[in-house]
Amino acid sequence: MMPMEEALTLAKKRRTIRNFDRKPVNLDEIKTCLEIAATAPSGADMQPWHFCIITSEAKKIEIRQACEQVEREFYDRRISEVWRQDLKKLNLQVEKPFLSEAPCLIVIFKQLTHEDQPGHWIPNYYVNESVGIATGFLIQALHQAGYAMLTYTPAPIHFLTKLCGRPDNEIAEMILVVGHARKGAQLPELEKKKFEELVDFFE
Ligand SMILES: Cc1cc2nc3c(=O)[nH]c(=O)nc-3n(C[C@H](O)[C@H](O)[C@H](O)COP(=O)(O)O)c2cc1C
After folding, report:
1. Distance CA 31, CA 142 (A)
2. Could you tell me if residue 66 is inside a domain?
3. Residue 117 located in a structural domain
4. 3-class SS at 50?
5. C-alpha pair distances (Å), 196 with each of 5, 13, 15, 34, 202
6. What is the number of domains present in the chain?
7. Domain with 153 in it: what CATH number?
8. What is the DSSP letter of 16?
9. pLDDT averaged over 10-residue windows placed end to end, the chain, 203 residues
10. Is 30 within a domain?
11. Quick check: is 5 in a domain?
């Protein structure tokens, strides 16, 4: 087993990457990472997740175009001033070249309901929490496999259901952009919370 100090050192190396090169991913490794994600706990073991793995150039371009249209509307009309200020330090743009340049997009879907009998749909439990945990497992596994990633969340995100041919009971949680960092990719300087700020012990 990896000593915990080593695991921490590796975890601290993960950063969100927004500039990717075109080197392909190894699909066998991606599959193993998805199997690790699927070991996540879920409310009443509903496993309310589905993953679409996109490496087709045409599909990536289709997704990029749809996302940029949503982004344009978001920045023009929907974003609040506070949100705009919070995003300033990240220097985000409407154009999302990483969606067509990165070798692999994983669209993570959450299943809001399931069919317990034909035609009878009931809500799943703790869907956001469960899919969030599975996504965390996936990110950590991909990081351990040596991949760079971006957790990308266009808002609204509903259009991805149809674009990925998924049923109406599913809504995308995010697009996980997966690949390798481009040489010289710039990272914003971020100040992480100190350990003492984020933990209380009751011993
Ligand atoms: C739920 C979630 C949504 C995010 N959405 C976006 C996004 O739409 N675009 C983007 O460039 N980064 C997005 N990020 C990345 C964050 O900006 C990033 O994780 C944060 O700035 C911390 O940086 P780090 O991951 O390098 O530690 C998102 C992260 C999370 C967890």
Report:
1. 10
2. yes
3. yes
4. strand
5. 18, 20, 22, 33, 13
6. 1
7. 3.40.109.10
8. B
9. 91 96 97 98 97 98 97 83 79 89 98 94 96 98 98 96 97 98 92 96 97
10. yes
11. no
State the Cα–Cα distance between residues 136 and 98, nearest whole angstrom: 21
pLDDT at site 81: 84
From 152, 190, 191, the mutation candidate for ligand 1 (largest count of ligand atoms within 8 A of CB) is: 152
Cα 196 to middle of ligand 1, angstroms: 23
Nearest to 52 by CA among 146, 151, 163, 155: 163
Q: CA nearest 152: which of 50, 78, 70?
A: 70
Is residue 16 within 6 Å of ligand 1 at its C-beta?
Answer: yes
Would you state the pLDDT for residue 10? 96
How many angstroms does the Cα of residue 38 sit away from the middle of ligand 1? 22
